[in-house]
């Protein structure tokens, strides 16, 4: 190896490649916390888990883990580590996970520390044997419950809010299912839980259905996942969404449907429809590619721009850009190309190289945009730095005009339910008018999809408030009590 290569700085800041993934990223996109996958009564469950988690990799790239149980013996096994699914699970790791039951997890951390102790599923020993917990989301009141439990003598091993439910279950004198129901009734927030012991699996969705969770069938077995794309990947047949406040209990006698809380208001996270979930997934029966196309079509009706081409910021805005182009008749072009191989933790050693890193992640196609009036479709604006960089990329490539259209209302409020959002003061839409944002991102014009237009585009049940979505990040109407002044719990 040459001295020049030896002296090159490493392009990440921790002991492993994905440590602190997303923090200090050159693009300030919102980050989903994690994804969960589970299977019950399915042969070679870990193989199913491997492919299911791989399909959910976009929901978390920092760590991955699985726990399995062999139903005939009750043997409980687990493996987890930092990194991508394909890096964490080699052939030897999968051979060490026998069983016909599995719960798995992919994680992206926010305030929680980036370390193996926080990788899920979290595994505990308690009076009835082994306990594994995997969750997607955030427990709003975890800090207060944690302090209460610590005063009562509990010793926490992680900084993850998920550990709270394990302590609540372990400290209860009731049977496992009753203890779990009591624990679920105490916590507030958005969550999808998979909880497994040596002889049972519990599946639960928060009372508002903030985080997505679906159920499928595979022969005589059951499969659960954060998104339907994982069911498709493993060959399971989608059966239904797990309902808000529902508790599914699976054991040797099959599956029993129970509830730990009644449904008061369905409020599925709007950002799942806008950005997080894969376009080939369905949420509450709504296909995301189709919903995003309708967002683009609705935006075209609300904000028609006389331009030469339409392009979408890859990957989440491609569907909406196609919809905008179809509605207006303006040609859709691949004006922006994403490099998928740079890694999401490209931390640069200098500002100069950091700015070059923008072009390593995203490139404008000069021969497509040069001399053109461009409509750039994106899903959201957080701090505004991403939009500014992309607008400037298009201008540097020769675009004569760059008009920015956002397929969501202005993002003004932080999320407390499992999305890594900055403080309100860092959200540009909470500090500036639309015109001020336009100037800040160097666009010729800027339009956001209206609140009502967004709801209409997504669809859903007319009889439910906001058609069953949480729009708190846009309208400040949170479905649960939140305390903006309290300590923020560490998601997943």
From TrEMBL:
Pfam families: GATase_7, Pribosyltran. Its cofactor is [4Fe-4S] cluster; Mg(2+). Pathway: Purine metabolism; IMP biosynthesis via de novo pathway; N(1)-(5-phospho-D-ribosyl)glycinamide from 5-phospho-alpha-D-ribose 1-diphosphate: step 1/2. Gene3D superfamilies: 3.40.50.2020, Glutamine Phosphoribosylpyrophosphate, subunit 1, domain 1. InterPro entries: GATase_2_dom, Ntn_hydrolases_N, PRTase-like, PRTase_dom, PurF, PurF_N. The active site is at residue 34. It catalyses: 5-phospho-beta-D-ribosylamine + L-glutamate + diphosphate = 5-phospho-alpha-D-ribose 1-diphosphate + L-glutamine + H2O. Keywords: 4Fe-4S, Glutamine amidotransferase, Glycosyltransferase, Iron, Iron-sulfur, Magnesium, Metal-binding, Purine biosynthesis, Transferase. Transmembrane segments: none annotated. SUPFAM superfamilies: N-terminal nucleophile aminohydrolases (Ntn hydrolases), PRTase-like. GO terms for biological process: 'de novo' IMP biosynthetic process; purine nucleobase biosynthetic process. CDD domains: GPATase_N, PRTases_typeI. Its EC number is 2.4.2.14. The keyword Transferase applies. It is an enzyme of class 2 (transferase). [4Fe-4S] cluster binds at residues 269, 415, 470, 473. Binds 1 [4Fe-4S] cluster per subunit. GO terms for molecular function: 4 iron, 4 sulfur cluster binding; amidophosphoribosyltransferase activity; magnesium ion binding. Residues 34-253 form the Glutamine amidotransferase type-2 domain. Mg(2+) binds at residues 316, 378-379. In the C-terminal section; belongs to the purine/pyrimidine phosphoribosyltransferase family. Catalyzes the formation of phosphoribosylamine from phosphoribosylpyrophosphate (PRPP) and glutamine. This is Amidophosphoribosyltransferase.
